[in-house]
Amino acid sequence: MINLSINGLLVEVPEGTTILEAAKKLNFRIPTLCNHDDLCVAGNCRVCVIEQLGARTLTAACATPVSEGMQILTNSLKVRAARKHIIELLLSEHNADCTKCYKNGKCELQNLANEFSVGDHLFLDLIDLKDYTIDKFSPSIQKDDSKCIRCQRCVRTCEELQGVNALTVAYKGEHQKISTFEDLSMAEVICTSCGQCVNRCPTGALTERTYLDEVWDAILDPEKHVVVQTAPAVRVGLGEELGLDAGNRVTGKMVAALKRLGFNSVLDTDFSADLTIMEEGTELLMRLKKVLVDKDESVALPMTTSCSPGWVKFIEHAFPEYLPNVSTCKSPQQMFGALAKTYFAKVRNLDPKNIVSVSIMPCTAKKYEANRPEMRSSGFKDVDFVLTTRELSRMIRQAGINFNKLEEDKYDSIMGVSTGAGVIFGATGGVMEAALRTAYELVTGREVPFENLNIEPVRGMEGVRKASIMIEDCKPEWKFLEGVELKCVVAHGLVNARKVMQDLKDGKLDVHFIEIMACPGGCLGGGGQPIPTNEEIRRKRAEAIYEEDMSMEYRKSHENPEIVAIYRDFLGEPLGHKSHQLLHTHYKERDRY
Amino acid sequence: MKNTHVKRVDLIFERTECKEVFAKVITMKPDDICQEILESGLKGRGGAGFPTGLKWRFTALEESDEKYVICNADEGEPGTFKDRQILDEVPEKVFCGMAIASRAIGARTGIVYLRGEYKFLLPKLNKALDEFHKLMKEFKHDFEVRIRLGSGAYICGEESALFESIEGKRGEPRNKPPYPTTSGLFSKPTLINNVETLDYCVMIMKYGAQHFQELGTKDSRGSKVFSVSGDTPRAGIYELELGMTVAQFVAEFGDGDTKAVQVGGASGFCVPRKRFDETIIGFEGVPTGGSMKLFNSSRSMYNVLHNYLEFFTEESCGQCTPCRVGCQQLLKGVEAVKKGEKTSKYLDELLKLSRTMKIASKCGLGQSVGNAFSSIVENFKEEIIY
Ligand SMILES: Cc1cc2nc3c(=O)[nH]c(=O)nc-3n(C[C@H](O)[C@H](O)[C@H](O)COP(=O)(O)O)c2cc1C
Ligand code: SF4
Ligand code: SF4
Ligand code: SF4
Ligand code: SF4
Ligand code: FES
Predict the structure, then answer these.
(1) Parallel, antiparallel or unpaired: strands A49-52 and A71-73
(2) Among A377, A548, B169, B241, which residue has the least CB neighbours within 10 Å?
(3) In this structure, is residue A219 part of a structural domain?
(4) With an 8 Å Cβ cutoff, are B362 and A82 in contact?
(5) Do residues B164 and B190 make contact, with C-beta atoms less than 8 angstroms apart?
(6) What pLDDT was estimated at residue A408?
(7) Per-residue pLDDT tens for A81-92?
């Protein structure tokens, strides 16, 4: 243990603790910008400088471990003067038109400027001297260099958490900026649209592309029937944007708010998550059959999931040779979209031309996915607009809805009933767990051998998790699986996805089924979820997801009565002709820059 | 008084039989080598002036399967060209210095980080390196030196940015601590010394600490190689005993009309004529990596300052706020004052800013911008304003 004093108060902390953490222990908050719980230390913004008695220079609290006998001042004259200078300097290089800025009110730089009551600018305005650009080419991510403070959180995110390296620091001195390969737009490079950088950008430099106005126009157009679907993870995140602590489930209130906002049908992506399980589970079993029984070498195993569009884009860029391994199932969002303008239109007797299909997603990559040219199997754009959890909260605020006072409401039907299996899609390992609950039962006629159906080995926040399940006493038609140990691996965060794929490539991974989610924690940590994020927040959201699962009437996808109905009335059988037409897709190799 | 005039010294370029020196070193205990260097009083000649013997001992004390000895030959400070001269004339001594260091700290790998523009030295260096490796074999001393060309940015001379650059990353300085002696190249304990420092180590091992220690002053032992430039009839490279005043230096190298001397290049201090007598060139006065630039009364100190600020505005790596934006503000700020867009009082704001840069920047570059800035602005205010 190390003893030190901070502002005259003594504190004892373990070796290796940073000054920042030690101060926190004494309830002194030191301002930070470049520091982020999920990322390695950068120490570049210098906002956190403190005075260490006897030192020649000030010290960056985030980057400096404590040492014995240190005497720290976090708010001395010297510190205050330097900190104010630093904030002033950042602002002098910054296009601070807060009232026009997407991050107005939710910006770490703005908060600091407020805290230090920066008034008349001390220094020259450098904005006019810079040739800042705004990149709006990506349907998911907007990058506005004039709002960038060069904290490099985005660069570290893309490298450390995602292993993508789409963003880098370019040039030096006054020209230094955050850039992409050859300054290409975000839409043209290996960026997966995952939005993790957006989640960690302290300012308005990286934001989602917003489609709020388009959605409002549709809602307010009497000709249109606006269908909205809500992804599993939204219900455990939205509350954070509306004043609640992390880990609150707000499903019923969210449904009520969506109805108040004027959506004509409020439906659930969890329904199509259940559908995904039926299709993907069957696909896995068919692949196993073809490999094990038919000895068909053209069939690729292991099979990977395909519901995370960031992951799909990643593999298209980085491991295109493994595209045949990716399940052909569309993501739940896109399955839902294709059905909204076919099945739903037919049952509800609506002209698909007049249906506007909106989805509320924890994800920015879904915005990109909805714009993929393949995603028009209904004959229309299957999903017209994708909004993030954050955008939904903004709509709720715009409409003046007192969210926390709302009575809980229920999803509309059809396509509004779901199961606990659909809900857990929102957490890493959830698709695997949901698929096992159904596939195991399909093959053996018995429930998965885990207490309360909770397959704990695939849960948790470990980057890569492995699990296996022994298949015994099969039903006659699945006899070829008798004695097979079904091996699975789950990974979240693309840096872990890369590890898994590399292991596969190196022949070091022997599994049948791989679940990959592009975002840390799975969708609940998606790029469209509330800011801030860190592992503790993501754990709380995950707990809420599993609580929601336990609270559901049905826990297994194949028991969902609406699923039973759609196969009976519309689709026929999993992997059938209609399914192929509406629910499955294909992929393409993409460039590597 | 000892230093009544500038005393020339001939150690750095003195031809030396490295074999003999190393034969002596190889029989010594590693810590005795560190002790000898420490007793000589030698301080690093790359700019920061850290006691070399201490640095060696710290690195020696680290336990690690791998350690590195790095020779910093990036020489990016404008107006400095002494390392080039040393490598050109006596490369074998620099390698020998690295070998002595490797013996002292227990390293098997050495790297010379050579400024990109000095590529033309490669044939000569490679030849000397072949000889050197033969010598190492003769002594059965397991130590191999590689030469790595620099990436061309001034900041890559800063030790931690240099490591990043060798590791194939962008040359951005790291946070300290940890210091290179505990975690340097590839996170291994690393000893990094300037070319000239390593050469002196050879001479200290040759003649003994005492010999070196007798030169110079208490705070600045020994001698040092200076690159003299600017308004001087005697531009060039000189090895001089440390401890002289600027006045003594100017008497020897000035053109009779010297109004200021920039000691230590862009990151050093500007000494005006009225301070020549009282200012000692050395760690007790104004330290220098070797650059001595003289200005006579025909020079505009505004232009001098403007050049330095342009240099820093370009050469800052750009990662930290005080340095990246501070440099731009100082540059644009003096321009605005010159043009009359800002009043002369604005210079006081800029001086305060330069003090913030000195204490809040992440590395030595940003921390030293204020040296030239404040010493020029404070001493030549009229020239800046009008
Ligand atoms: C911006 C900057 C540039 C530097 N460039 C050099 C250089 O070109 N050569 C050098 O020897 N040291 C340079 N240094 C100092 C090194 O960081 C380091 O202190 C030195 O190489 C240590 O060697 P020494 O102890 O022998 O002086 C630079 C420092 C800074 C901050
Ligand atoms: S990024 Fe922040 S400080 Fe900058 S304009 Fe937007 S809200 Fe204001
Ligand atoms: S969206 Fe994801 S992949 Fe794209 S730059 Fe950001 S972190 Fe990297
Ligand atoms: S884009 Fe955002 S996260 Fe990236 S460096 Fe700029 S301000 Fe920081
Ligand atoms: S002080 Fe300048 S050169 Fe050093 S890290 Fe900061 S920006 Fe880079
Ligand atoms: S938060 Fe410590 S330097 Fe940025």
Answers:
(1) antiparallel
(2) B169
(3) no
(4) no
(5) no
(6) 98
(7) 999 999 999 999
CATH number at residue A399: 3.40.950.10
User: Which ligand places an atom closest to the C-alpha of A201?
Assistant: 4
Domain boundary among A175, A208, A241: A208
Q: Is the residue at B268 inside a domain? A: no
ipTM of the complex: 0.95
Beta strand ranges found along chain B (DSSP E): 68-73, 109-114, 144-149, 190-194, 223-230, 236-241, 258-263, 269-272, 291-296
Nearest bound ligand to the CA of residue A35: 6
> Which chain B residues are closer than 8 Å to A35 by Cβ?
none
CATH code, A111: 3.30.70.20
Which whole-number Å values give the CA distances from B82 to A422, B76, B89, B290, B330, in the listed order? Answer: 71, 11, 11, 7, 30
Q: Is residue A569 in a domain?
A: yes
Active site residue A40: no
Where residue A41 sits, what CATH number does that domain have?
3.10.20.740
- Using CA atoms, how far residue A554 sits from A437, A487, B191, in Å, is 12, 26, 65
Active site residue A329: no
For residue A148 and ligand 4, the question of a CB distance below 6 A is answered with: yes
Distance between CA atoms of residues A385 and B83, nearest Å = 63
Within a domain: residue A131? yes
Tell me the CA–centroid distance for residue A163 and ligand 3, in Å.
Answer: 9
Question: Taking CA atoms, what residue in A is nearest to B335?
Answer: A124
Which of B213, B239, B270 is a domain's end point? B213
As a whole number of angstroms, the distance between CA B381 and CA B374 comes to: 10
Q: Is A39 on the interface with B (CB under 8 A)?
A: no
Digit-coded pLDDT (tens) for B161-220: 999 999 999 999 999 999 999 999 999 999 999 999 999 999 999 999 999 999 999 999
Selection from A227, A260, A193, A214 nearest residue A528 by Cα: A193
Cα(B321)–Cα(B327) distance, rounded to whole angstroms? Answer: 10
Q: Is residue A16 part of a domain?
A: yes
Does B351 map to a domain? yes
Residues A250 and A369 occupy one common structural domain? yes
Domain that holds residue B156: 18-213
Q: Tell me how far the alpha carbon of residue A62 lies from the centroid of ligand 6, in angstroms.
A: 5
- Single residue among A176, A208, A240 that ends a domain in this structure: A208
* Residue-range definition of the domain harbouring residue A367: 229-593
Largest Cα–Cα separation, chain A: 81
Q: Which of B192, B213, B234 is a domain's end point?
A: B213
Residue of B nearest to A40 (CA): B175
Ligand 1, atom 9, residue with closest C-alpha:
B75
Residue B249 lies in a domain: no
**B209 and B332 inside one domain:** no
How many domains does one find in chain A? 3
Residue A589, strand partner residues: none
Nearest to B175 among A47, A63, A174 (CB): A63
Q: Do B175 and A129 touch (CB under 8 A)?
A: no
**Closest to B145 (Cα-Cα) out of B209, B203, B87, B85:** B87
DSSP, residue by residue, A101-119: -TTTTS-HHHHHHHHTT--
Q: How many domains does chain B have?
A: 2
Reduced to 3 states (helix: H, G, I; strand: E, B; else coil), residue B181 is coil
pLDDT digits (tens, 9 = 90+) for A223-243: 999 999 999 999 999 999 999
In a domain, B278, yes or no: no
Secondary structure (3-state) at A12: strand
Residue written as token pair 């767990």? A433
- Catalytic residue of the set A21, A88, A214, A374: A374
For testing the chain B interface, which of A66, A85, A88, A176 should be mutated: the one with the most B CBs within 10 Å? Answer: A85
